[in-house]
Amino acid sequence: MKSFFKFTFASILGVIVGGILLLFLGFMIIAGIASSADKSVTVKNKSILEIKLNKSLADRGVDNPFSELDIPGAGSSSIGLNTILESIEKAKTDEKIKGIYLNVSDISANFGGIASIEEIRNKLKEFKETGKFIVSYNNFGYSQKAYYLTSVSDSIYLNPEAMMLLLGMGGERTFYKKFLKNVGVEAQVIRVGKYKSATEQFFRDNMSDESREQTMAYVGDIWNQILKGISEERDIPVEKLNEIIDAFAVKKAADAKKYNLIDGVIYQDEMNAILRKLSDIKEDKKLRLISISDYSKSPDEDATFSKNKIAVVYASGAIGNEQSETAIGPELANTIRKARRDSTVKAIVLRINSPGGSALVSDIIWREVELASQEKPVIASMGNVAASGGYYIACSADTIVADKNTITGSIGIYGLFFSGEELIKNKIGFTTDSYGTNKHAAFGGGYPLMVVPVSSRKFTTTEKAILQEIINDGYDTFLTRVADGRNKSKEEIHEVAQGRVWSAVDAKENGLVDVLGGLETAIEIAKEKAGLTDDYRIVSLPKQKDPIQELLNDLTGEAKTRFLKFELGDNYRYYNQAHSLMDLGGIQTRLPYEIELN
Predict the structure, then answer these.
(1) For 502-522, what is each residue's pLDDT tens digit?
(2) CB atoms within 10 A of CB 197
(3) Given a cut of 70, is residue 140 above it in pLDDT?
(4) pLDDT, mean over the chain
(5) Of 77, 296, 388, 419, which is the active-site residue?
(6) CA 542 to chain centre
(7) One-character DSSP codes across 230-261
């Protein structure tokens, strides 16, 4: 028996020691991967900067060294718009870079919005002015978004068997009124502004006239900008482009070549031969392609260190109670406050990519933007969308800059609540009985389904009137914030508000936007307002978390989310959109849908 216990104890001890050693080895491997990601990259002579669009695009990328590990907890990686723009700028004067290869064969379905594409496209046009080449190739067919980007290329090539579809800009919206009725749930909506269509999907079967009017206005503006851009680069009149599109004349590579939308129909090996010739590489030698990720790690010989800073504060995602790389929370107010108090920060650029969200959190952030603008220049830079709460946090900036394809406005507020009286009492069979010490102690009823935000009854007339008063006050506050920030009267702002969504072009016309341009335009304005020469550097805020700590968090606290992202890939966004429908409840300043051009 003694030998048995001795053997058992030794086995357990061996397992524990072995486990500790394996854990230690794992940390060593993780640390090695993380440290290798920070190593400087050497650029060879006669190199070509290869831009691939095979990851999601964020205003600020997450350089995750573990993203290539084939495990759910390894996290994901994105391409940063800031990294792409900085790399193209650096390549303009880098003698080792011969040109740019837009390899968009594997374009990701969630590669950014049209405003971000516009910023990259404008930067590529600057690059062309240096005399260096830009060529594009696609093995699997161009989406409209990819084609618009690559239309700036000197030459565009396509695989002979690939498809290319130009269809125009449009889509469908889903309405849930009948579904809710079938399950015994009714949406109770309190809103201000005839254009605030954020809740229509819950109480209508189709788009209202106002919703259709505003949608067609900004969709038309954006599509006209796209057609104009293609027309200028390919020397095809806009009228001819519309004629081609309406006739569905382009379906495959040969059609695109016929109508001068591309320059050649070739295979990958032929594309490689063209690249060798352009970069003066012999046929038997390997092409020297360098990715954006690697090139961003190469030393910039023109870079100088300066104590003067322009802080670019990134505000990306819906506005709610938690801060992350893809969501805006109250912590962003702390970030702006720290930038305001930092004497080395001479100006702030608030980069916004948000459909809005919580009215309360929007106001908390607005307050810090307002305080910062009293002490130093604050420039708002709008990305793909900066609407509703996204506009709320921008309105106190000294200057508002938006890309011409930005969606903005939606100055309005709504309250959305779900009553499940029919579902709870008649279909499920629950009964409720209220009690309370005061007249309104049981305001709005109870929530017997617990995990689903559906109340046991409809609002009373008094309760609905109280909520309408709260919503009206919230709208009045929103108008006041915008009017003060834009130096206009509340009446003037109300005329262009009422929940209406605008394209940036129209928003500039009605005074909601000051300048049409991208992030670099905003930085340039911040530099001028701060009285800086070229003696400054850019700092990005909030500070990103350590990748090792993030990996540990992913493997522990966010296992479910990471597993779903791992399994669903790009389709995770559809799951997330469906899941977030429940987050539309309560008092909100946000857009009700995502706007995307494929």
Answers:
(1) 999 999 999 999 999 999 999
(2) 27
(3) yes
(4) 85
(5) 388
(6) 16
(7) HHHHHT--HHHHHHHHHTT---BHHHHHHTTS
